[in-house]
Each structure stands twice: as C-alpha cells, then as structure tokens.
Amino acid sequence: MRRWPWPAGGCSDPAASASIAPASSCRVIAGPATAGAKPSTGVSSASPKYVFAASGAAMWIRRAALPDLALDGEVFDEEFFVYHEDTDLGWRANRLGWKVLYAPAATAVHVRGWRREERFRVPVAARIHSFKNHYLQIAKNERLRDFALNLPWLLAWEALRLAHALVRDRALLRGYPAACRRLPSAFRKRRRLAAKLRSRAAK
Question: What's the whole-model pTM score?
C-alpha cells in the first residue's frame, strides 16, 4: 500500500505504509517487529515477507481465520471505533499462531488522513480514540513477561505522551479516563484470548 500524498522524496519503502510493528514501548510503528513477532531482516519490500500486522486500509483475511480471531463475536474490536483496531487484530493473530504476509504484488492507494505535520486537522474525537486504544491493545495482548521486560521503554514513552498531551494537545487527556472505563472489557477479552491459547496448547 502506498501512501498518498507521497512523503518528501517519494515512498522509498512501500512496506512501511503497508505493515505495522510495535516497538519496545508498545508504540506501533513501521519497522522490525518485536514483542513476540520475528523481525524480518535482509528482505526488501519488493519481496513477500511476514510482518507483525497489516494496515486495516488494505487487509485480506482468510475466512477460515475469522472464527479463531474473533473475541466476543468481533474480529475488529468495536470499542476501539477508530485507530489501532488493525494493530490489535495483528497482535492477537500473532498470539494465536497466524502469520501476516506482506504481498507487494497487491497494491492499493491510501488517502491517509493522519500525518504528523497535520495531526491537528484530525478531529478531536478521533485523536482521543487513538490515544485510548493504545492502552486497550496493550491490556488485551501484551504478555506479562514482555510487559515487565519492556517497562523502562514503556514508561519513557508514556512520559513523552503525557508531556505532549499537557503541552500541545490537552484534549488527549480525555483519553485516559476513556481507556479506564473500557479496561474491564479489555481484560475480559484478554481472558477470552488466554482461554483460546490454553485450549490450543491442550490439543
């Protein structure tokens, strides 16, 4: 998937706008996969490669995978509403043993609404959803051991997020209580995922 408008200098790596990976801070970025996903090294974006997650703007899912990926009857978490629901799904797919393949021969043009230099053009409600969903996907998917190992990076990133909200975008502060209100549901879905993993391990 190629972003539109093109970044300065052109889209040098189409995979960067078609695939998603989390950093140690649990921030979702384009780049080598961590937190349980195997990094892809030495593979150019011109070749098919396995990635952590696919962008929801151009994603195909096998029908056979849908019942396994669904939690409480939802493949995409409806409480997310917008932003990070593709990352949440990719994270869950990795936990359940499904692989996400980047296929360069399948192309699409994405009119991207969120760009760093124009973030304040995004509606406030959408920015708040993105902010809260960061926490919901961690609550649903992150392994406790990985959470403990990544805690220093996570705390540093959270300090930066809080500073950004306080200094540049105070509306984002509403994302904290919004996330807290939905944590019980996120933890319930985490238990559903854990049950699926135990059932699979017992077979």
Answer: 0.79
